[in-house]
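A further point concerns the way the authors explain their paired sequence and structure data. Since the whole study asks how a given chain folds, the encoding of that fold should be made plain. A single example would do more here than another paragraph of explanation. An entry of this sort, consisting of the sequence and the corresponding backbone structure tokens, reads as follows:

_____
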Amino acid sequence: MKLAFIRHLKKESGAIGIKTLIAAVASGLFQGATIGVINSAAENVEEGGLNFRYFTLFILCISAFIVMKKYALSNTIAIVQKIITDVRIRISDKIRRSSLVKFEQMGKTQIYTIFTSNTESLLDASRSIGEAGPSLIMTVFCFTYIAFISTRAFLLIAAMTACAVFLYLISHKSVMADLHESIVKETQFFEALNQLLNGFKEVKINEKKSQDLYENHIRKMAVESQELKGRTETRFVGNFIFAYAFFYILVAAIVFILHQISAISSHEVISLVSIVLFVSGPLSMVVGALPSLAKANVAIEKLRELEEYLDAADDSRFTASRSPIGRKRLFEKIVLSQASFTYSDEKGLRIFSMGPIDLTVNRGEILFLSGGNGSGKSTLLRVLTGLYYPESGEVYYDSIRVDETNYAHYRNLFSVIFTDFHLFDRLYGLENVDEETIYDLLDSMQLNGKTDFADGRFTNTNLSTGQRKRLAMITSCLEDKPIFVFDEVAADQDPIYREYFYTTFLAELKSKGKTVIAATHDDRYFHIADRLIKMECGKIVSIE
């Protein structure tokens, strides 16, 4: 059986883990000693009086057992809670450092599913391990005590136990295969569910799409996941019942077989039976903890795989702490030289290619990108802003070549609103923002009465698409970056605001020395731009 969870506990727990282990061992020993004291006291019952010696030993052992077990159990849960917190913080940090391409390839649904469900499995395992650890120590103690009573009894019990464990492990190995497959099906279910949640309007209006998504994906994945989980849990239960029935078989072997192979008194048989019956409870806890431990092992493996993927996706690990780009906010030009980028599917087959592109963006100009859907405008903007690395070609910030050592500094020069933007309700990264400025921007964006700013956040983000874009533009203005990138921001706006955006808003940005790069279909306002770049099939076809 893999012990990834136990090894991870050992690695992450440090000094407190050693103390917890010592307490768990002591708890099991004191619990076993309690059985020995009770058994010895039963053999030396004094008529008409209390055996103070054994009674005192019993009180000491049971008290020590309670204290040690509580300490071990509480610490185990605390250690796992800390591990879960550390994992959540560490993975969150790795997610924000990963490249956009790798993030998109994995998908946020898969990341979220691995992130949430597996951390809960660790917490469930911590409770089980906290109970099972001392019980296992106590079981070992009791088996040692059995050896003290009768060597042949110990050998018989050990042989039967070894056979039972061997059969259990054979069954457990096949159960693990079903457990892994059930996790895959559960991830597929959440991916389909995410399609429903994100595409609710489209599903609501199209009955065939709704039926297909529900019947052939959501329902199918849910049923398959349920069947696998049910089969897995049933086999876990079967293993538990097998272990539980084994104790009765063990008792029968002591009663019916042991005296056939060893000269043993009835008094010793009764002692052995009482010990085995007593140890059946703690050992059942050990067996009952195995399913939780198995799930925790899978969880650790999945989390490890996620971390390894994110480590490989980290595009900031070579970033220099200081860069001329970070200090040089006033640039003269940004140059793309023969830059290209290709989208590929999971099999590595090319889906869409952009480039090679030669383009110069001058400081303080307004640059419009036009072209049909799929022409490559958004891809070009992602390459231009450093979210995608060009597969070939170069990006220059004045005379400075943009590479993996300074991409993070380069990206920080841009304030970007893409078509698939996320609207944050808080002004993350901004400090000491003048609220009067926010209210003025809300007024100019015609959002007064739609939302407000209080306690460091916008009070309402449940707005229309056009209003959400305007609220995102307020955040963009407050960030006050040297370069503004807008991907179809004027789309979904009413004619009055569209006029304001092109004739007033962009002019104000230019008057402040800002550089504006906007993807747009509004040919009525093409004259606003200093230059108009037209794209088709991933290439620039004209610059006007």
